[in-house]
Design goal:
9-stranded mixed beta sheet, Rossmann fold, 3 domains, 42% helix, alpha/beta, 512 residues
Length: 512
């Protein structure tokens, strides 16, 4: 019998007794104590952000008038009396107190992206709307200044690797994935079950309560949109104004991460090749799209035969890491980003011809992250979150079959999007993946050619949430729009919603 039904039955019995007895009694129902009361009611100690003279992030936050705090949360929400973690926050307080809305929590994606700087970067596009909110940056659990996690991955710890050209290369990937999973288990096996999106969403609700707010407003990009969706599912009715930019539907969220984006990424590559061909005089990559794509194929084939040597150290860039370097540069169709990729490809083309080359500053930073221990923490966190959310044991052969099926249509992206990951050797998630069965009045923002969170993913969430509205940027191959694309139509529409709390009457379209 349900609790409500039981209470009604007791009330009937009490009424009968009252009618037949000379003594009347009154029953009271006491609410169950909140098992998270000590976390919800904790005092937030806001303080200066800089941790020392070399702390550039903290100094930037302090200079902007921000303050910082650490929130205590349970490691395991099923055992709130057990081990705890800290979650780092930053805040720029609302100054328009007459129109104050409350906290606006910001998430930049990832999985595992830090968020403390976001109140500074997003206040620019928010303009006067920022004055109505306490802008809250948050480093999710195990990320940035929160309780850390680093599996100690060294060379080749790129978060997304490609299967390579043949079965022998794929067998190397199986060994790498098994080794990376084993390192994480040995280093952090006691906490890995709790490195999940659902627990980060629970942390968000502790933050909400500790800030004294009945509801959170939220701006989440990319994976941050998925985090926002999970929060709404776990805590219905606790969101106010919600913007999801680059919408990642649970239906598209998988342990291989890029599965489903192959066509969009290959289309973005072709569009970039046309752009570079029109600037052959600057970059020398080919006067036609076909010539530029042939140059890319030459680089890929050379890396498969022998790693490309870049710099004096040198960095050794092989066929397992090279595709991610390309795909990571195809997330925007802005001229600046396309120019960066063209400059990189020019260096890689010379390396493919076995000429001595030096990396640009941008390429050196990318290679350091992808090929050394510098990227270990970020790659560990990203992998742990995805594996903790949706890992499944498929069998090592299933990935190779998927790679081969996709390779002909998607030669660059297919072997990357379908490759085996450490999740194959991870423990199964403690909780089942989140399924949305709610309806949230949110503003969804997506480009039709987004190569990361494809437009179909945004359409899926729009269909799931009839109360939401979809703001589309037609023709753009851009991931991350609001405040990042320079599109006045997008920025004005989002700001209007955050200012008033009123969604558009219908879905809207902005031109690229």
């Amino acid at each position: 019998m349900s609790t409500s039904r039981r209470i009604r039955a007791l009330a009937v019995v009490a009424a009968v007794l009252a009618a037949t007895a000379t003594v009347t009694t009154t029953a009271t129902v006491t609410a169950a104590p909140d098992p998270l009361a000590r976390f919800h009611a904790q005092r937030v100690d806001w303080h200066a952000c800089a941790l020392g003279a070399d702390d550039e992030l903290g100094q930037d936050l302090d200079a902007a008038g921000a303050d910082c705090a650490d929130i205590t949360v349970p490691l395991d929400y099923a055992d709130p009396g057990g081990r705890t973690l800290t979650v780092a926050l930053s805040r720029v307080k609302a100054t328009d107190t007459a129109h104050r809305v409350g906290p606006l929590l910001l998430n930049d994606g990832g999985p595992g992206g830090p968020g403390l700087r976001m109140p500074l970067t997003k206040s620019r596009v928010l303009g006067e709307v920022a004055d109505r909110y306490d802008l809250i940056g948050m480093d999710p659990r195990f990320v940035g200044r929160s309780t850390p996690l680093d599996c100690g991955w060294g060379l080749g710890s790129a978060p997304l690797r490609s299967a390579g050209a043949d079965r022998a290369a794929y067998r190397e990937e199986v060994a790498v994935a098994r080794e990376l999973a084993g390192r994480c288990e040995r280093a952090h096996g006691d906490v890995l079950p709790y490195v999940t999106t659902r627990n980060t969403a629970r942390d968000m609700d502790v933050v909400r309560a500790a800030l004294g707010a009945d509801a959170l407003s939220y701006l989440g990009y990319s994976y941050g949109s998925y985090l926002g969706e999970v929060y709404t599912q776990l805590f219905p009715g606790r969101t106010d104004r919600m913007v999801l930019d680059g919408v990642n539907s649970p239906a598209y969220y998988s342990q291989t991460m890029l599965r489903g984006t192959e066509a969009a990424n290959e289309a973005a590559l072709r569009a970039w090749a046309s752009w570079a061909a029109a600037r052959h005089g600057t970059y020398g990559l080919g006067a036609t799209r076909a010539e530029v794509l042939a140059k890319v194929e030459h680089i890929r084939d050379a890396a498969a035969q022998e790693p490309l040597r870049i710099g004096k150290a040198p960095y050794l860039l092989d066929a397992h890491v090279l595709p991610f370097l390309f795909i990571g540069s195809l997330g925007s169709d802005l001229d600046k980003e396309r120019a960066n990729l063209a400059a990189t490809v020019r260096i890689l083309a010379r390396a493919a011809d076995r000429e001595p080359v030096e990396p640009s500053e941008l390429l050196a930073g990318q290679l350091e992250f992808l090929l050394t221990g510098a990227g270990s923490a970020a790659a560990s966190q990203m992998t742990a979150i995805v594996c903790g959310d949706v890992a499944e044991r498929r069998g090592v052969g299933s990935y190779w079959h998927a790679v081969e099926e996709s390779r002909e249509r998607f030669p660059l992206t297919g072997p990357l999007a379908h490759n085996i990951t450490p999740c194959e050797f991870w423990d199964r998630p403690v909780e089942a993946p989140t399924v949305l069965d709610n309806d949230v009045p949110a503003l969804l923002v997506n480009a039709t050619g987004d190569p990361r969170t494809v437009y179909a993913s945004a359409e899926a969430v729009r269909a799931q949430w009839p109360s939401s509205r979809l703001l589309t940027v037609a023709g753009a191959r851009q991931h991350g729009l609001y405040g990042e694309y320079g599109n006045a139509c997008v920025d004005e529409r989002v700001n209007a919603y955050l200012r008033t709390g009123r969604l558009p009457a219908h879905d809207l379209t902005c031109e690229a």
